[in-house]
Write a structure and sequence with these properties.
Blueprint (H helix, E strand, L loop, with lengths): L5 H11 L2 E3 L11 E3 L1 H20 L4 E3 L8 H6 L2 H4 L1 E6 L6 E3 L28 E4 L2 E4 L12 E4 L4 H5 L2 H8 L5 E10 L14 E11 L1 H21 L7 E5 L11 E7 L13 E8 L3 H5 L22 E3 L4 E3 L2 E8 H12 E5 L5 E5 L10 E5 L5 H14 L5 E3 L5 H11 L3 E5 L3 H4 L1 E6 L5 E5 H13 L1
Parallel strand pairs: 3-9, 19-20, 19-21
Antiparallel strand pairs: 1-2, 4-5, 4-6, 7-8, 9-10, 10-16, 11-12, 12-13, 13-16, 14-15, 17-18, 21-22, 22-23
Helix pairs in contact: 2-9
């Protein structure tokens, strides 16, 4: 089969309860989505995989959960108030508004310059900068005109890590190199959101800041690039659908000396020459910019303090060398939404059964599958079979997420579980009442094996996690 496009995943997601349009009963809200029962499980499994790998299985990373709303000064000194913007253009013909750097991804203008299919030429205004931060106010008598009440919804989780650098350092007694990891919501008032959950105004980030000496930064940066490529492969993503992209000098953020994006083939339906790959995550060498800008001591070339409002010095003291300096920071930042989308697209397959019917199989890794096992009674009108099936579900639940389903014939039940990615179905039939055994069906191969009930849990755990 050809690679699925995003529209195929949209259809599957709404049909099976992975993702729903937000505020749907009121007509929705542009580019806002709600994770349904299966989607929230998949997203949580991805986040748990990331957290387990970075924080639990390593010995050099601490966790953090910082506030979504921070003091406005955080965003002033981070540079977001003045530089966190996109170039915005308007089309005088269709009245559309677009990001200048993303014009190829929207209908206006399309080749050869015809405006939104109207037959008229596009007429674009000069680009102007549009700040992406969502503004809000704090306090019962707050006002947009009062600087003291102005605040922002955070556009990234990184700054919450930087301003907590000293807190984590003092309480954990860490020594360089070490990292601080965080998973949390961020908000960006995107000009052109779209493509399902690929680009949204509200999204969740899995972000880590890894602090090290300047001399070690280049080596460590490359190590994280290599490690995250392997992590995406561990999620079941095929390496041929991934690509590295080295940002050029004109693309780098002003504080970065190098940034490499890991791209995924989100748009396989596009013709050759069009952008089939787009960003899945970025891994940047941010130098010592952030800790310096949030510190009270650094000065510019004229001896003027860079941050007169800060109360802390976020430098690092190395007792073995008696040095004090500002560490460099390597930042791997991945989006939960885009990772969910990539995992769904890569797992989507189709298979034809012996009746010539095409079935969808979502080949999620067992670790990510929202449901690990489905217990199905062959005859729901047989009380003994139903009781045995429900008993098995209860027995398996503490060890693996298990569901019971009797809302259709066995063929339809198998197809439903294949489509949502359940690795194994356990069927209780008439023979089960005699031989105390059940049939275990494999999602990917459709092969079936008879297993004794007494051995079922151990059998499934071995198949799921080894």
């Amino acid at each position: 089969m050809s690679a699925p496009n995003i529209e195929t995943i949209v259809s599957l997601s709404k049909r099976r309860g992975f993702v729903f349009p937000a505020s749907d009963i009121y007509g929705g809200l542009g580019s806002s989505w709600d994770y349904g029962p299966l989607g929230v499980e998949l997203a949580n499994n991805i986040k748990q995989s990331w957290w387990r790998w970075l924080v639990h299985e390593r010995d050099d990373v601490e966790g953090l959960d910082s506030s979504i709303i921070q003091n406005r000064l955080v965003w002033k000194y981070s540079g977001h108030e003045t530089t966190f913007s996109d170039p915005l253009v308007d089309c005088r013909t269709c009245k559309g508004r677009f990001r200048e750097d993303k014009l190829r991804d929207v209908e206006c203008p399309n080749e050869p310059g015809v405006c939104a299919g109207s037959g008229k030429e596009c007429s674009l205004t000069e680009a102007r900068q549009f700040n992406l931060m969502f503004r809000t106010t704090i306090g019962p008598v707050s006002s947009d005109d009062d600087p003291a009440s102005l605040a922002y919804l955070r556009p990234e989780t990184a700054q919450g890590i930087f301003i907590n650098f000293k807190n984590v350092l003092d309480t954990s007694r860490r020594k360089l190199p070490f990292g601080i990891a965080q998973i949390g919501k961020s908000f960006r008032n995107e000009v052109t959101p779209g493509n399902f959950i690929f680009r949204t105004r509200e999204f969740e980030q899995m972000e880590m800041e890894y602090f090290c000496r300047a001399d070690d930064a280049a080596r460590i940066h490359q190590e994280w690039i290599d490690d995250f490529w392997k992590w995406f492969e561990s999620l079941g993503i095929k390496p041929e659908n991934l690509k590295l992209y080295e940002q050029g000098p004109d693309e780098l953020a002003h504080y970065a000396v190098r940034c490499v994006d890991i791209l995924y083939k989100f748009f396989p339906e596009r013709e050759e020459g069009q952008a089939q790959f787009d960003e899945l995550m970025g891994i940047a060498n941010r130098t010592d910019f952030d800790l310096k800008t949030h510190s009270k001591k650094p000065e510019d070339a004229d001896g003027k303090r860079l941050n007169p409002d800060s109360t802390e010095d976020l430098s690092y003291f190395d007792p073995t060398t008696n040095e004090r300096f500002y560490p460099y920071c390597i930042e791997p930042a991945a989006g939960v939404n885009r990772t969910v989308l990539a995992v769904l697209m890569d797992a989507y397959t189709e298979k034809t059964n012996d009746k010539g019917e095409t079935r969808v199989i979502l080949k999620l890794t067992p670790d990510l599958a929202p449901i690990k096992v489905a217990v199905l009674p062959l005859a729901k009108n047989k009380p003994e079979i139903v009781a045995m099936a429900k008993g098995l579900k209860k027995e398996l639940l503490p060890s693996m997420r298990t569901v019971y389903d009797d809302t259709g014939g066995i063929g339809k039940l198998y197809a439903r579980q294949d489509e949502i990615g359940t690795p194994f179905c356990v069927t209780v039939d008439h023979e089960s009442l005699v031989d105390d055994a059940v049939t275990v069906r494999d999602r990917d191969t459709w092969e079936q094996e008879r297993v004794k009930v007494a051995e079922l849990k151990e059998y499934l755990l071995k198949r799921l996690y080894t």
